[in-house]
Amino acid sequence: MSTPKLPPLIIKKSPSAFYVYTYKNKWNSEKARSERVEFKKVGTVVSGQKEGRIRWDEKFLEERPELRNFICERKAKGYVFEPLEKETGLSLKQVLGIKQLHAGATWALDQIVSSTPIGPALKKAFPQKRDYLKTLSIVYFIILNENNNISRYPNFAETTRLPWPGALHASTIGRIFRRIKSQQIENYFTEVQKGLLEQKIKANDTDKLTLALDSTSISSYSEKLPNVVRGRNKDEDNLPQINLLMLVDSKTGLPLFYRHYDGNVPDAQTVRRVIADNSRLKLTDVVLVSDKGYSSNKNINDCLRNDVGLLFNMKCGVKDSLTQEVIDEEMSNLRDLNKRDWYTEAFQITKKIEWSYERQPVPRKRPSKNTRDVATLYWHIYFDKQIA
């Protein structure tokens, strides 16, 4: 089988790939030399680099059908052809180089991604150089490995089927992370929110959007990253910390919003900014669910002002909290056997409270009756004698 002859070719780089072009030479009498003209794209280097296998465009293959019988690779500015076996459609080199890849766990992760807005959101937020596929592959590595030191990624990729099949070394992964801009992260969360709302509409889901709110500290091995501060988290880790607060959809587990903030411990007042950002989130019928630590009067008032539902785990030690006062008022009822739920073995009381708050607070201006609103809140108290 004779090797195909190719027309003059040139490789051109775009923001996302390397493409193969044909061209023609034309004599320029003024400059007394020939110039390349009439460029036409005919293929793509699938490796994402200047060298590697060429995937020819269909129109070019129609013009030169003999190329269908060969694998063509660009090597050292030249083009190397390898014939395909008729029975398998593979080259001898490919047959000898076939290897098995672990795919069960990543297949399961693929199903999760395909059933959520994560995939389309990544593609829209990180389109350059197919970073969305590379980022997803790195995420798979982090999820599936107990020791997820990024230097181990090449060995993992060698034996595992991943969205990005190419090699990614630690330096390459570092460049990918450095390319990520704050606006791209914002775009990602915006697209996830849009996708989730579209899914709810298609499923005719009219339930309120219940968002779990919590904050945590993440250890970092680099002190050069922004928002990294020296501190100790709950695990007594003495590494630098990045503190994050997130909103997560309780049904799907999808994170819909995040904010990083300064400080060694979670700041309860940070929630106020998250609640105020609800207008930017463009989410309606929202209920915030939180553990203790976020139940200050200011946070409750902000929820009411922004029409955000709330289900807070109240804490007695929070400044201006009515929790201890309500418990003291109901102490006698909390020991009444008629208030006992025999399934949970706890005493349960719900108390209705008329909550007064400033509708539109103005700095340095005292509130008045005309500027205050009243909302009905329900205080659920659970009392266990043994725990007490």
Helix/strand layout:
Blueprint lengths: L8 E5 L4 E11 L4 E13 L6 E5 L1 H6 L6 E6 L2 E6 L8 H5 L7 H11 L3 H8 L5 H14 L8 H7 L10 H10 L2 H21 L6 E11 L9 E2 L9 E10 L5 E7 L8 H7 L1 H4 L4 E5 L6 H9 L3 E4 L10 H7 L10 E2 L4 E13 L13 E12 L5
Parallel strand pairs: 7-11, 11-12
Antiparallel strand pairs: 1-2, 2-3, 3-4, 4-5, 5-6, 7-9, 8-9, 9-10, 13-14, 14-15
Q: How would you describe this protein?
A:
The protein is α+β, with helices and mostly antiparallel strands. The chain has four domains: 88 residues, no CATH class; 79 residues, no CATH class; 112 residues, Ribonuclease H-like superfamily/Ribonuclease H (Nucleotidyltransferase, domain 5); 67 residues, no CATH class. 28% of the residues lie in helices and 29% in strands. It contains twelve helices and 15 strands. The strands form three sheets. The protein has a six-stranded antiparallel β-sheet. Strands 7, 8, 9, 10, 11 and 12 form a six-stranded mixed β-sheet that branches. It has a three-stranded antiparallel β-sheet with strand order 13-14-15, covered by helices on one side. Strand 9 and strand 10 form a beta hairpin. Helix 4 crosses helix 5, helix 4 packs antiparallel against helix 8 and helix 9 runs parallel beside helix 11. The longest helix has 21 residues. The N and C termini lie far apart (87 Å). About 3% of the residues have low confidence.
